[in-house]
Automatic annotation (TrEMBL):
It comes from the Bacteria. Pfam families: Flavin_Reduct. GO terms for molecular function: FMN binding; oxidoreductase activity, acting on the CH-NH group of donors, NAD or NADP as acceptor. Transmembrane segments: none annotated. Signal peptide: none annotated. Residues 22-167 form the Flavin reductase like domain. InterPro entries: Flavin_Rdtase-like_dom (IPR002563), Flavoredoxin (IPR052174), Split_barrel_FMN-bd (IPR012349). This is Flavin reductase. Belongs to the flavoredoxin family.
Length: 167
């Protein structure tokens, strides 16, 4: 693993994110990963941050609420498509996604939460702020399109404490 600046692959990360990335959370001895297609990398409070979104109906939500960190592992070369599909449609409450998908994890370098092997780019983050979406402040068209069930996201802003490229 080669340590890199958080913004060195920001364009590639943003493009790949729309195809799917793994958000991994660890609480105690429980580890779960889910597929995310939304998020953003930016700069707030004098620090680089990765903002991820999790609905409170997700199993990952129960874990991330008890954690102060997360990792995001991004495949840049269109690999792991089936694994991303499975992890985006099945719940960690019902399946051991690592076993089902034969996903391997690797210890984080700056956090206790692992990263997903086989991905090219990894972000290790410490949660600094979270915000429940306020539907009254959401664009009406977005509300209709993305939240027909009114299952709004919670936004988690994680300070990026490590960024790595799998060489």
């Amino acid at each position: 693993m080669k340590k890199i600046a958080y913004d060195e692959y920001i364009q590639e990360a943003t493009e790949a994110l729309s195809k799917g990335a793994f958000l991994t959370v660890k609480t105690g001895d429980k580890v779960n990963t889910m597929t995310i297609g939304w998020g953003s990398i930016g700069y707030c409070w004098g620090k680089p941050v990765f903002m991820v979104m999790v609905r409170d109906s997700r199993y990952t939500y129960k874990l991330i609420e008890k954690s102060d960190e997360f990792t995001v592992s991004i495949p840049l070369k269109d690999q792991l498509k089936e694994e991303l599909k499975f992890c985006g449609t099945k719940s960690g409450k019902d399946y051991d996604k690592f076993e089902e998908c034969d996903l391997s994890i690797q210890a984080g370098q700056e956090v206790d939460t692992p990263i997903i092997k086989g991905c090219d780019l990894h972000y290790e983050c410490k949660i600094k702020f979270k915000q429940v979406m306020n539907p009254d402040e959401l664009n009406v068209e977005y509300d209709k399109k993305w939240y027909p069930q009114k299952d709004y996201h919670i936004l988690y802003f994680g300070e990026i404490v490590g960024t790595y490229l799998d060489e």
